[in-house]
Amino acid sequence: MLSQVYRRSSFRTGAIIALLVVLFVLTFFFPPLFESFFSLVKDSFISIHLLFEITAIFTSFSIALYGWVSTRHMEQEIPPLLPAFFLAVAVFDLFHAFTFMGMPEFFGEVNNHNSTWFWTVARLTEAVVFLASASLLSRKQQKPSHNLFLLAAAYTVFVSYVIFSESFFLPQLLGENGPNQLKVLLETIVAVLHLTAIFVLFRQVRHEKRNVPGEFFIASVAIIFASIFFMSYSTTTDFFSLSGHIFKAIGYVAIMRVVYLRNIEEPFLKIKLLHDRNRSILNTVDIGMIETDAHGVIRFLNIPAKLALQTSDQQGLGKSVYTFNAAGENVHDFTTMKRTNGEQFPAEVERFPLMEKGRVTGYVYTMRDLTDAIRQEEMEKEQQQLEFELKTAAAVQNSLLQSNTHNQHDHIGVISIPYRQLNGDFYDINVTRNYTLFSVADVSGKGIPAAIQMSMITYAMEQSNPMIEEPHEVLGSLNHFVSRYTADTNFITMFICFFNELTGELAYSSGGHEPALVYRAATGEIEELQTKGAGLGFIETPTYETRFTRLFDGDFVVLYTDGISEDRGREEIDSPDVLKAGMLQVDRSLPARIVAENLLDYVQANKIAPATDDQTIAVLKKMENRRAAGKESQV
To answer: How many helices, marked H, and strands, marked E, lie in the chain?
Structure first.
């Protein structure tokens, strides 16, 4: 995991700190061990000093630069206060180096007074900012702004101005024998601030269980040792002064490393991990995907694309996507594609642009090999051609025979208005001696395809028998028929009722259709009838259910399609509220066919937006004395 990649173990941190402690003990308590080495570089101390200062300046500017870069693009894990004010540290160290005794007069008079004050201010700034940043590690970092860098720049200008122009007001920091009491006090403050930072960081590790970078501890220890040396030297060019610069450089490098790892490298590794994960996800989809640059040069192919084109990364990456187009180079029509071996195959290809700042930087192509689908479709069509012709002809004949059957019965009536010339809505009425089979369906789409499916479902309905089947069984049979004989993209919703005229019992089932509405004459209220079940053709083996209710004298049921309930001019586009209002106002004593017509007129008059779909309303009334009439007919 990413956290494991960058987590520095306590053992490694402890080992480095132990090494620093050993180095400090040897150099501080046993300086004669290094006397021969120091004697070699003593005469070149100014150059050695400049070398270490350049290292510190470069490191400080790098810390600030890392913070600036990450400020522009991402949230920072390291508090932005640290890199922002290391800009000031870098400038102060720069002025310290160029005002050091023995250097050319780049910025005016060279003297130890100004040089030491720049040095001390840089150390104090670094220590205060370091402690503040250590305290802020436990807080969630927000995306920083550049205001901190502007504040650090203003601080740098102000302090530099004071030291350069008002230095005679500043007290001396060096005596005849090295640092005076004020200088020792200021270096002590630096050391105490870093000791406090170590305590704060250790508390976060022990009590808050935070993954604190080990480089923070290393930096504090190194800078504390540097402060001890800078409190102890006799002259600015002795061995202790050189040792202090070495430990200071180690501390700064440790800070630069943690800022780089946490604010630069780790975020980009996260991006790379996310990039690789997204590529892995794209390899799991079942369609081919090709990514190209703005000129069509392939940068990525997922596994389905490689299989379809029979290519590999070595063969495909870097090539133009048009080399796989059978129509030729620079032809955007990808209806026929070409494999690596030259074999052509039909394909469904779509292209989507990749935009960045309003400019197209590349394209993503989705590709589906249609070879198997076309072959299977052709085989099915050849096998079913004769069956469809015979069944469609029979369905047309049956629909013609029963088209006016409902007009012979006052208790049932239907009105259906197609949106276009051909109707995609379907209704079926089959009145036997004691039963009425009553259903309404809506075929997906409009026009000729919907009309053909309507004819097919009409034929299939002829096979149902309310005497031996329940509504959910009829829907199950119809779903098998639709799934087998229609395209995967087509479906049908249906509501079917079996009404027992003797008992008033109404059995009903729905296949993804709008709920039926029942007006109760006894209460003047409207109920909704609905059951669970998917539309016909959605899935191969759905589950449907049959429910029962009872109609009493004066009650009536209304079945309808979504062309009735849909009104794109209203906030709630699909609602039967207008139809319900019409059921309460219509003259219910009229024959069912007239009631259906009046309901349609009411709905159309109260629509805000014009209808954009077929409209069908079917009405089944429970007639008074219907049961008695049935008994007399039986006698």
So the answer is: 20, 17
Kindly state the tokens that stand for 528. Answer: 């909704």
The closest of 191, 187, 170 to 178, measured between CA atoms, is 187
Q: How confident is the model at residue 375 (pLDDT cuts 50, 70, 90)?
A: confident
The rounded mean pLDDT for the chain is 82
How far apart CA 278 and CA 330 sit, in angstroms, is 29
CA 317 from chain centre, in angstroms, equals 27
What torsion do the CA atoms of 228, 229, 233, 238 make, to the nearest 10 degrees? Answer: 180
Angle at 348 between CA 344 and CA 350, to 5 degrees: 125
User: Does residue 447 carry a pLDDT above 60?
Assistant: no
The helix or strand, by DSSP H or E, that contains position 580, with its residue range, turns out to be helix 577-585
- Please calculate the CA angle 124-125-127 and round it to the nearest 5 degrees: 65
SS3 220: helix
- Classified as helix, coil or strand, 559 is strand
Alpha helices, H only, 283-404: 303-309, 313-316, 371-402
Over the Cα atoms of the chain, what is R_g? 43
Architecture of domain 288-369: 2-Layer Sandwich (3.30)
Query: What tokens does 327 get?
Result: 């129509």
How is the chain split into domains, by residue range? Answer: 47-274, 288-369, 376-634
CATH class of the domain whose range is 376-634: alpha beta
Mean pLDDT of 127-137: 89
**CA dist 452 → 194, 219, 560, 614 (Å):** 84, 81, 20, 15
Nearest 5°: phi and psi at 48? -65, -40
As a residue count, the chain comes to 635
Sign, CA dihedral 464-468-471-476, equals negative
CA-CA distance, 503 to 501, in Å (whole number)? 6
Cα–Cα distance for residue pair 94/237, rounded to 1 Å: 18
- pTM score of the predicted model: 0.49
pLDDT of 248 over the 60 cut: yes
551 burial level (CB within 10 Å; 0-12, 13-18, 19+)? buried
Domain 47-274 has CATH 1.20.1070: yes
- CA distance readout (Å), 391 to 363, 454, 473, 481, 492: 47, 12, 21, 12, 18
Instruction: Label the pairing between strands 505-511 and 492-500.
Output: antiparallel
Q: Of the candidates 611, 633, 256, 254, which has an alpha carbon nearest to the alpha carbon of residue 417?
A: 611
Percent residues over pLDDT 70 in the chain: 85
Neighbour count for residue 605 (Cβ, 10 Å): 9
What tokens does 563 get? 């062309």
**Residue 317 in 3-state DSSP?**
coil
CB of 92 closer than 8 Å to CB of 160: yes
- Contact criterion met (CB below 8 Å) for 190 and 127: yes
Residue 167 half-sphere exposure, CB side, CA atoms within 13 Å? 20
From the CB of residue 392, how many other CB atoms can be counted at a distance below 10 Å?
15
Distances (CA, A) of 387 to 163, 283, 362, 383: 101, 41, 49, 8
Which residues are 520's β-sheet partners?
525
**3-state helix, strand and coil shares in percent for the chain, rounded to the nearest 5:** 55, 20, 30
